[in-house]
Every structure is written in C-alpha cells, then in structure tokens.
C-alpha cells in the first residue's frame, strides 16, 4: 500500500507493522463498501430512540472482521454492531466501529469514518481511522507517530482558548446527560473561538491529531468511538484524559483531547 510506506517504516517493530497493515486494509475495504452504499436508499433499523443502524454498518463490520481474521488471526474482536457485552479488558482486542457517524451517513451528510483500534492490556497499540468520502486514512502505532495518507501529522500549538476551535458531541441518551452537556457548552463557548459538532467522535479525534481542531470533549462514548483516535492524538503530540485530567480509558465514557498547552485550560472549562 503506497499510502503507508513512511507510516510502516516508522512503526517500531515488525509486529506493529503487520498489525497496522491489517487494520488499514480492513478499514479501506469497509470504506469501499460504505462509499458504494452512500448514495443509495438505506435500510434503517433503530437500536434506540434516536440511535440507528444501516445496511452499511452491518456490511462494513462483516468485511472488517473477515479481513482482520485473514491478516491477523487469533485476536479477539469487540465490534459495535455484534458486541454482546462481554470482554476481557486485558486481552489483546480489536475495537471496531464500522461506521462512526451513522446518522450523518443516513442523512447524506458526508462526515463519517471507519475506526479500528487495537487494545492490549487496556492500552492502544495501533489505530486507523478512515474517512471514505474524503479518502483520508489516519494511522498510528504506539511509538511510531501519527500519519495522514503517509504524511506525519501533529496537534496544534495554540496557547490560548480564545484562539481555539474545539468540538464536542451529544450522547444518544441525551435526556440523561442534558444538564451536563448544556452546562459544559455554556462554560466553554464564550471562552473559545468556536465550537464544532461533527457527529462522529472518530473524526473529531482525527481532526485534533492533524491540527484541524484544537480540542474535543464528549461524554457517554463507547470504546469503539475513541480507541483509534486516542492513539492518534497521543502519537501526534497531544494529551488525552477524562474530564478531570485523570488517565484515560475508553471504558470510562468521557474524553478530553487537545494539545498539551490547552489541556489544563479545557479541563477547567469543562469541569
């Protein structure tokens, strides 16, 4: 894969090269499926009051799992649409979101991504986020840096909140978190340049990693929303924690990601 030449060279071990290549091939395969289905009528099923799943989610997940099983067999899988609620958090596991931003996809809004991260002992080893309509492949390995289409990326150097463009998202169970979401938005909005709401946490984190956004926060997320993006941001020189600045875990549900200078200022703002 030509778009991974430098990315793979930077990976600190042959094993990580193999794992990253497996994740990238699976993400690109899923992205092809999603692109082909994007402009067609969709089959939509509701998983919750406002949480939906389409034929593209299911087809992409099937393709990802098959591809990973072929290229990196024997590794456990936690995938959004087939997850049964059981996982050994210390076991090496692929964490998969076949289509993050399903609501955007279903409404014809071209902001969504495939997200595949590899956790080992609760820490990310490799991560890939692929935005199929933009054909942007974000990749990272632990110790190997963060990359966009084989070009190294890094977070911004913005020092002041008033100069910062940040993003957030809203939980599907918004009624449960409404006071928190409104309170954080009320606190952050007057302090920053502006706030974006992409509708896909994987995209938000990739955009922090490549410097399009200065920061991102959200609550009530799942591991498949953030595992790949977590590694992307850290390998791009950024910081990822919970809202209190404590060590991040994709099983906590809340995430705050930004460059290291802004991070304590954003912690104060969202807390």
- What is the count of helical runs? 8
The CATH architecture name of the largest domain reads 2-Layer Sandwich
CATH class bucket of the largest domain: Alpha Beta
Classify the beta-strand content into a percent band: 15-25%
**Unreliable parts:** none
Helix content: 25-40%
What can you see in these coordinates?
The chain has 8 helices and 14 strands. The protein is an alpha+beta fold and 271 residues long. The strands form 3 sheets. The chain has a 7-stranded mixed sheet with strand order 3-4-5-6-7-8-9, with helices on both faces. A 5-stranded mixed sheet has the order 11-10-12-14-13, with helices on both faces. Strands 1-2 form a two-stranded antiparallel ribbon. The model has no long low-confidence stretch (mean pLDDT 96).
Question: What's the structural blueprint in terms of helices and strands?
Answer:
Layout (H helix, E strand, L loop, with lengths): L4 H6 L3 H25 L5 E3 L5 E3 H17 L4 E4 L13 E8 L1 H5 L6 E8 L2 E9 L4 E6 L3 E4 L2 E2 L12 E4 L5 H15 L5 E3 L4 H10 L4 E4 L4 H13 L3 E3 L13 E4 L4 H8 L1
Parallel strand pairs: 3-4, 10-11, 10-12
Antiparallel strand pairs: 1-2, 4-5, 5-6, 6-7, 7-8, 8-9, 12-14, 13-14
Helix pairs in contact: 2-3, 6-7
In brief, what are we looking at here?
By secondary structure, the chain is of the alpha+beta class.
Key phrases:
2 domains, D-Maltodextrin-Binding Protein, domain 2, 271 residues, alpha+beta, 37% helix, 14 strands, seven-stranded mixed beta sheet, five-stranded mixed beta sheet, Fructose-1,6-Bisphosphatase, Chain A, domain 1
